[in-house]
Amino acid sequence: MEDDADVYYVISDLHIGGDEQLEEVEFLDELLGFLERLADTEENAELVINGDAFGLWEFTTVEGMEKFDELESSYPELFEQLRRTGQNVAITLLPGNHDHELAAYDEYVDRFAEYNVDLVQDESMRRRVGDRVVHFEHGHQRDPNNRIEDWGNEHATPLGYYYNTLVTSRAGRLSDRGRYNWLKDVQAVTPTERMPIWLFSKYFYREMNPVLRYALVPFLLLFNVSVVVAVLAALDIAGIWSMPVDRTTSFLGQFGTAGTAVWFLLAINVVVTTLLVLVAVPLYFIRRDLRRTIDRFGVFETSLTVDAEGPYESAARETFEADPDVAVFCYGHTHRPTVRELDGGVLVNTGTWLKRLHRRDGIIGVLPPVFYPTYQLGTVRIADEPDGVAVEYRTIGKPSPAEEELTLTERVFTVGREPDLDIPDRTVIGDSDASDNADPLDDATAADDAAPADDVVEPDPDRSLSR
């Protein structure tokens, strides 16, 4: 293409917009600052917004082009900044699954053009960088729960569509009814199958009456110890092993009232734990038998959980093999930032600008896990340089909201366990050894041939149906 840039900046998965509380964009200032800096760059650059820029699935009270009107009226600063930035650098918007409707209505092309944004209504596209090529796609094509077979059909509704219209948008309307405005973060829970435990966690740490919570904490912390004591007590009763009760009592007695309180609490824990274990054993066998019966009848023939990495690795390998000129396979969708060399190319996932929730299970006891919040506002810079195609992963600083969003108990349990993003800052891929061929960008079917859309993937507990 004659108008290819020398440098590409790539972002994805902003998920801007939605019903009520989902309307809030917590990273808006950072996004505006990023666009302002691009507006002043002297590079021959293009900004690629690689899918799910907008949460159109999360709008349930308006339809069609009215959704653009909602976006335009809700975020005037953003659209005006897009207009200004687009006067200096090319801005290309590729639809994802959440904003698939951008490909369903041609009117969107004209409306975005008013703000200097070129809306490409295809599922993928390619750009030349020096002598090599970058393949862009959002990535929903590899996800059976969000794959859209009839691309461009305004009525296309994969499974993920129903989750977001029925669950995510509903959460946006109800979020401010809680003690804290946290329910809207359901869109940040990945994989989606973690939502029940996330809800239980937020109930325990945020919504539960504090008196009840702090009364339960000691019991839950000592649960594992109580199980051991209960087993030892059973051995003592059976005459297999004798418990050193006197020594334990003597040891705790050194601490006076505090030691007596611990002994009393431990005794209660042991009794309660023993009862729970007695009940849990038959329930376990009943649950296992029920699961086997369900499996025999084939009620659930497929899993909603799919692989978050395998299909993208396979698609990238096929793309690199089919066309050695392709140096970078760039996608989003899974919200997991990645930069990794693969079969002579680079596999890049731009991540998400949404809040990310990192599960941290308790070290002791049986307390609910804590979901630690962070922002990883990732931008990818792809440029032609003398030593090859350089891929740089950069993050825009935004402090973790843990101080405001986590209770004191949650912060204590996650001290020293804060997530750390481990991605190389810079990766360089040298020139292709492939012989000169026809320009792959002129082949309209190159992307489709290189990466078939109906890969079959195996279940993996680390994937979400709603992304």
TrEMBL record:
Organism's domain of life? Archaea
| Membrane spanning residue stretches | 211-241, 261-286
Q: Which UniProt keywords are listed?
A: Cell inner membrane, Cell membrane, Manganese, Membrane, Metal-binding, Transmembrane, Transmembrane helix
UniProt region (Disordered), positions on chain: 417-467
Q: Is-annotated flag, keyword Lyase?
A: no
Task: List all Acidic residues biased stretches.
Answer: 433-459
Q: Which Pfam families match?
A: Metallophos
MF terms from GO for this chain are: metal ion binding
Domain annotation Calcineurin-like phosphoesterase: ranges: 9-185
**Keyword Ion transport carried by entry:** no
Q: Which PANTHER family match?
A: BLL8164 PROTEIN, UDP-2,3-DIACYLGLUCOSAMINE HYDROLASE-RELATED
* Name of the protein: Metallophosphoesterase
Q: What is the lineage of its organism?
A: Archaea, Methanobacteriati, Methanobacteriota, Stenosarchaea group, Halobacteria
